[in-house]
Amino acid sequence: MADKIVLTLNDEQPVVEEVKPDVPPIPEYKEEDILTAEERKQVEDFVKQIDITQSNVVLQYGNAAQKKIASFSDSTLQSVKTKDLGETGDMLSDLIVELKGFDALEEQEKGLAGFFKRQSNKAQGLKAKYESAEKNVDKIVHSLEDHQIQLMKDIELLDQLYEKNMVNYKELTMYILAGKQKLKEVREKDLPALVQRAQKTGLAEDSQKANDLAQLCERFEKKIYDLELTRNVALQMGPQIRLVQNNDTLMTEKIQSTIVNTIPLWKSQMVIALGLNHSKQAIKAQQAVDEMTNSLLRKNADSLKQATIDVARESEKGIVDIDTLKHTNSQLISTLDEVVKIQDEGRQKRREAEVELARIESELKNKLLEIHK
Questions:
Q1: pLDDT in tens, 278-322
Q2: Which residues have CB under 8 Å from 133's CB, separation 6+?
């Protein structure tokens, strides 16, 4: 609510006036407004039949309508209890998990060894995975369709229950209006007449009649209040039924959207994904072939280069390498030198041996001469 600003020329605090918005007055509600002219006439006729001087009338007044509400509450509760929206929610969650769990473009192990065989295995595995996912999805969709049919039946049933509840509510209202009207008549006419008569006659029995009627009025008033409580239950049951019906409708729409939008979209995306996967595998295969071809060309070029160089080098060489001739000549000269040296040493050793032999021979002769002396 906004506050009105008031300007002032002194130091006093301005007075703030509360601004009240223009709110249209709430029309006064009358219970009889919900009744048709025919139903109002029925209430007026029924008032004439009510005799609250009869204890059983007071006791049983409106019981039939109250029993209808009790029976109706039980049937409504049973309808709500037999539905398991949680199961439907679980199936929708399982469906989401199933759809998310399939990835046609997931990364595969890299490498060239056994590439084409591995790609074939991947394609088969991908198709098997898609078929398994599709089977699970179709199974869940079938269950969802069954639940959708049941929910649609429940929505129709709740419509009937709502209409029946409104009839019960109106019936209770008619009982209440009739009872209030009768109670007003008795308290304004019959009870004052009995009180006046008792005061006039002074008889105990007249006083008792006035007191009994006053007590019956009290009981009947409590009975009407009890009917009002029951009617309030019926009043609350209306929006409760609509809430349950709205939940069923929302769930039905969710299932319908899933069946006609989510599932076809998923399947179309899977077809596209499979096609992309095939294209991806074809690209990988072409890349592998290109890589192998380039590798072979590089290796052949390297081998050709090395072989050409080796041939050129060999072609420029002589039959006998100059280094070999130099080595051979050096070894030959060394050999001749060694031979000459060995021959000189042998000649010297022979000379020395001849001298030694002459000495030995001389010693032997001298020894023999000494023996024959």
A1: 666 667 666 766 677 677 778 877 877 887 787 777 666 655 567
A2: 98, 99, 101, 102, 270
Q: Report in angstroms the alpha-carbon separations of 258 from 137, 172, 261, 264, 266.
A: 11, 44, 5, 9, 10
* 22 in Cβ contact with 10 (< 8 Å): no
Percent of the chain with pLDDT over 90: 9
Burial class (CB in 10 A: 0-12, 13-18, 19+), 186: buried
Q: Is 52 exposed, middle or buried (0-12, 13-18, 19+ CB in 10 A)?
A: buried
**Do 75 and 154 meet the contact criterion of CB atoms below 8 Å apart?**
no
Q: Is the pLDDT of residue 343 over 90?
A: no
Identity (one letter) of the amino acid at 54? Q
Residue 271 CB neighbours (<10 A): 12
Q: Residue 216's CB: how many other CB atoms inside 10 A?
A: 20
Structure tokens at 52: 């609250």
325 vs 322: CA distance, rounded Å? 5
314-331 pLDDT, tens digit per residue, is: 666 655 567 777 888 888
**This prediction's pTM:** 0.53
Could you tell me if 148 and 256 are in contact, meaning their C-beta atoms sit under 8 angstroms apart?
yes
The β-bridge relationship of strands 3-4 and 17-18 is antiparallel
Ranges of H-type helices in 186-203: 191-201
Distance CA 164, CA 65 (A): 12
Q: CB within 8 A of 61, min separation 6: which ones?
A: 50, 175, 179, 220, 223, 227
Q: Which of 4-18, 48-62, 273-287, 355-369 has the lowest mean pLDDT?
A: 4-18
- Do 140 and 96 contact (CB within 8 A), yes or no? no
